[in-house]
Amino acid sequence: MALVLNEEQKMLKESAQGFLSEHAPVAELRAQRDAGSDTGYSSTLWGQMVNMGWAAILVPEEYGGLAFGHVGMAQIIEQSGRTLTASPLLSTAILGVTAINLAGSEDQKTELLGAIAGGELTIALAVDEKIHHDPMQTAMRSEAKGDGYVLNGEKRFVVDGSTADKLIVATRTAGSPGDMKGISLFLVDRTAPGVSVQRTEMLDGRNAAIITFTDVEVTADALLGEQDRGFRALSATLDAGNAHLAAELLGIAQESFDRTLQYMKERKQFGALIGSFQALQHRTAHWWSEIEMCKSVVLKVLQSLDEGDVKSPALASIAKAKLCEVAELSTNEAIQLHGGIGMTDEYEIGFFIKRARPAQMLFGDYNYHANRFALISGY
Amino acid sequence: MSDLEVFRQETREWLEENCPQSMRSPVIAGEGACWGGRNWVFESEDQQLWLERMGSKGWTAPDWPTEYGGGGLVKAEHKVLKQEMGRIRARSPLDSFGIWMIGPALLKFGSEELKQQHLPAIIRGEIRWCQGYSEPNAGSDLAGLQSKAVDMGDHFIANGQKVWTSYGDKADWMFCLLRTDPDAKKQMGISLVLFDMETPGVTPKPIKLISGSSPFCETFLDDVRVEKDQVVGEVNQGWTIAKYLLTHEREMIGGMGLTGAGSKTLGAIAAQTIGTTDGRLNDLFMRTDVARWEIDAAAFAFTAERVTDEAKAGQGIGATSAMLKYYGTELNKRRFETLLKIGGSDDLIWEGDISNNGWTARTLLRTKGNSIEGGTSEVQLNIIAKNILGLG
């Protein structure tokens, strides 16, 4: 498949660009933050996104979706990186849809996917238990009891965990931390008895949560996929999540770059535009080259997800790792080349680093993915 | 059957009949390559046969016009030929600066007479060419070249010194930039001329490199007679052609990918050499280096793919050859630094079987030139900053 966007994907990219820059520019994020928003995103905006069909993009047609694919969805996500737009797209429309579609029973798919597409249901994925991502180390227990299960344990860095209607929780029904086998996924209502949610506002102004499960009882139909065999679906869901996080980081890197390049053509020092200094030109040219690399790895993994390519896990780790590296470079260079003004809260350039770092760390940073890629590659 | 399928069938049959068995294995690190020319000594009858057969079909230059002896293939056919050659692992019948460099320039800028004189001999591999661009005082600042050709009425007399002439001691003809108007602004007074290396006054002298090999020469020009009909394009307009050739060279170097990449990944080489425990390389710091390199190399390979696909689809910004040249050559240097670390002390041995005659060390040293030749990395960054980013 040619490594370019097709016409429909380009159209979606343009319409996302138009909509987000008009309705959800960086100024909106500032307003949300300053108003002390409880949700970390605008419900009105989410409603508009649902109306445009964005929540339904990854949902198969037989469940009321658009089946437009990961490349298409990522065009929106990339633009939302440029505008720093917060929304439940990642947690609900990407992670939620992917996990349910991969692991869910026919009943679960019919009930839940349609509700997500219609904007009636939001989801949060609860995976991490420690301060560093490592899903195979899942320790939180779920024990069979009667017709159902009892869940005990704690999850952290649960994005949208304080607002989502339902949680998808990775637990251990067998084996011990480090085993691939023995992991089971459950669908749990956020408001179920025994679920205690501590909202943690992050440096990007968005919500995550630390969630404690104390003797939380669920029925057998809360199990998502087969008992003990949830890791495959979880891993594939995380691959999709990381591919889209890479797309968002690409948007962040490009916007940081574009704004800085523009500034270099306006700012004068020593009687000359700072963009005329070769020391800065070479840094900028190198930075630009790195972003070109990023465009390619992101599109490659998205296409592989749409094709169901067996290389998707390796490509997801390549893409996330590379984008972690270049988003770090981009947000740092953006501040340095802006100089003092880049350090002020009043100026928008500093908002990009504050979103980039959580997006980098979510579901594995550079080190996690370089390690995972090496393991997949046999070293 | 479509025309293209017919072409594929015929090509497959022709190659099956005409490609000698010994020519059906890849050229590794230059071993077995054929450069042709008046002084070429074929390493085997098969090598000579393969060149003659491909040359007579014009398939040493598959997309050049048939009127000059080229293959006259359209893009899709050219691709089929490459695929079919790949299928039987047929090696290239001819490596040639004539085909890569001066040929395309002649096709674009040369007079009809020059095309007829030179292109057929290039295609048949009878004349080997070298490039006379750089001078001791004109490296990155190529337009500052000082070797000159003085107009003597019906011919020029050239004097000066060229450097980094690839295979200057083995070549038959040189395409050479000379200053023909000393008073014009520096880019304006340059001409691209062609002359036989056997012309009196032309003296190539090999330069020994840090890798121990001597692929380059310095070439002295003392009262060399250059015929007027051997000027490519207009007199004093050579810089335009030189820039075209430099872009072409950049694309070639950028598109070549990574030296000796072969089929084995760096990770596989490291795992084999150093060993693994529980699927992890035994040297964890080395493992990080290898993974970092592999990730960047994958990103680079996908970028080369994307840029090509964008060009085909009429998208993209063009002018990406500077980026590919910069990134690809820097990556290649890193590859060999990592390979040498993997190879350890055995790979420091300069000669003998243990290190395959110091292959890794010598190639590492050679790769240092990758980011200098064809425009340094710093020149590529200048091109990106000015031409793509609009920084003045």
Brief summary of the model shown:
Chain A is α+β, with helices and mostly antiparallel strands.
Can you tell me the CATH architecture of the largest domain in chain A?
Up-down Bundle
Could you tell me how far the N terminus lies from the C terminus of chain B, measured between alpha carbons in angstroms? 55 Å
Oligomer: heterodimer
CATH architecture of the largest domain in chain B: Up-down Bundle
Biggest sheet details of chain B:
4 strands, mixed
What structural category characterises the helix and strand content of chain B?
Answer: alpha+beta
What is the number of beta strands of chain A? 10
Uncertain spans of chain B: none
Strand content of chain B: 5-15%
The global form of chain A is globular
Tally of discrete structural domains of chain B: 3
Provide the structure class of chain A.
Answer: alpha+beta
Structure report:
Chain A has three domains: 7-121, Butyryl-Coa Dehydrogenase, subunit A, domain 1; 124-229, Butyryl-CoA Dehydrogenase, subunit A, domain 2 (Beta Barrel), CATH 2.40.110; 232-376, Butyryl-CoA Dehydrogenase, subunit A, domain 3. Chain A has eleven helices and ten strands. Chain A has helices at residues 7-23, 26-34, 43-51, 69-83, 89-103, 106-117, 231-264, 278-307, 312-338, 350-361, 366-376; strands at residues 123-126, 141-145, 148-155, 166-172, 183-189, 195-201, 207-218, 223-224, 268-269, 272-273. In chain A, the strands form three sheets. Chain A has a four-stranded mixed beta sheet with strand order 1-4-5-8, with helices on one face. In chain A, strands 2-3-7-6 form a four-stranded antiparallel beta sheet, with no helix packed on it. In chain A, strand 2 and strand 3 form a beta hairpin. The longest helix of chain A is centred in the middle third of the chain and has 34 residues, at 231-264. The two termini of chain A are 29 Å apart. Chain B is α+β, with helices and mostly antiparallel strands and 392 residues long. Chain B folds into three domains: 3-94, Butyryl-Coa Dehydrogenase, subunit A, domain 1 (Orthogonal Bundle), CATH 1.10.540; 129-236, Beta Barrel (Butyryl-CoA Dehydrogenase, subunit A, domain 2); 256-388, Butyryl-CoA Dehydrogenase, subunit A, domain 3, CATH 1.20.140. In chain B, the strands form three sheets. Chain B has a four-stranded mixed beta sheet. In chain B, strands 2-3-7-6 form a four-stranded antiparallel beta sheet, with no helix packed on it. Chain B has a two-stranded antiparallel ribbon with strand order 9-10. In chain B, helix 4 (97-109) packs antiparallel against helix 6. The termini of chain B are far apart. The model of chain B has no long low-confidence stretch (mean pLDDT 93). Classes of the chains: A alpha+beta (379), B alpha+beta (392).
